[in-house]
Amino acid sequence: MPDPPPVADLPSPVSEPAGPAVDAWEPPDAWEPPEPAKAPDPPQQPDPADNAAVEARDEAQRVERQLGAAAEQGANAANELAAAAQADKAVIEANATTNLLQQQALEDQAAEAARRQDLEVDRAFAEWDQKGTVEQSAYETTQRLAKGLGGEKAAAEALGREGYDVLYYKPDIAGTNQGGIDIVVQKDGQLYLVDNKALEGWRNVSSVSALDKNLTANTQSMAELFDAYANDPARPAAEQDMYSAAAEKLRSGGYEKVVTNANLAAVSGFPQDVSGRLDELGFKMWDLMGKTRLHDLDSGTGDLGTQQS
Question: ∠ CA 164-168-173 to the nearest 5 degrees?
Fold first, then answer.
């Protein structure tokens, strides 16, 4: 058997190209949780030996206490003001209600007094009718009825002197006790329905039934009367036209409602105004007594004004 060739003579092995280097795998690092957040460091207390820092801290605390106390006082003051305002509002409302009730009570009392006086007048007329004719018995009436007649005539004459055309007024004492409009006057084309109140005292007029609850019936009746005047051939044409126009105004509402205060017998004052309810209904007050003395009315020397309020 032949001997193997010498090692030196063996052919060199063919080397293959080297591939990319592959990193050696290493296991991942172990997971560790994040560190918890640290609490803020407490405020550093001043060194007790540092007097300036201690005083500054004490002063800050004192100011803080003062501000807190001031804020609390402000809140308490605001609450007290709110409570006081609420109490004042309640008092004002209570006073307003009381005043309204008192005013209403006064008006009710005045209306009741007028109603009783009307009943007294009615009773006087009834007694007179039962006794028969005037020749058989004296005409019985009341002081209020006499005042009413004198006041209506005085008011009509006063308005006539002031330049008003007097279209109508109750002519005698029997009419004073009857319902209806007391006086109708006109000036500068404006028609006025007048109710004279010959009342004593300075209280306001609170009831005018003829121009209030009975207004529709009374204006209709007055319009019919004026129609008759307008168709009366004995009257001048200008007067007929005036009454015809006045009747139309009565039907259409083209008039103003007026209260006067003429009273020949008054000794304790005269009405100066109408009540709030009548004012809301459009009533006006003409003060016929404000510019004259009582005896001037009777003598005809007084200057009666028509002051409107």
Answer: 120
How far is Cα 218 from Cα 208, in angstroms, rounded to an integer?
Answer: 12
Q: Alpha-carbon distance 8 to 300, whole Å?
A: 177
**DSSP at 37:** P
Strand order in the sheet with 255-260: 165-169, 183-187, 190-196, 255-260, 284-287, 307-308
Which residue, chain included where needed, has tokens 């296991």?
27
CB 185 within 8 A of CB 165: yes
Yes or no: say if 236 and 263 are a contact pair by the CB < 8 Å rule: no
The answer to whether 274 and 285 have CB atoms below 8 angstroms apart is yes
Cα distance between residue 245 and residue 252, in whole Å = 11
Contact 267, 288 (CB under 8 A): no
Over residues 217-257, the pLDDT tens digits come to 999 999 999 999 999 999 999 999 999 999 999 999 999 99
The pTM of this model reads 0.52
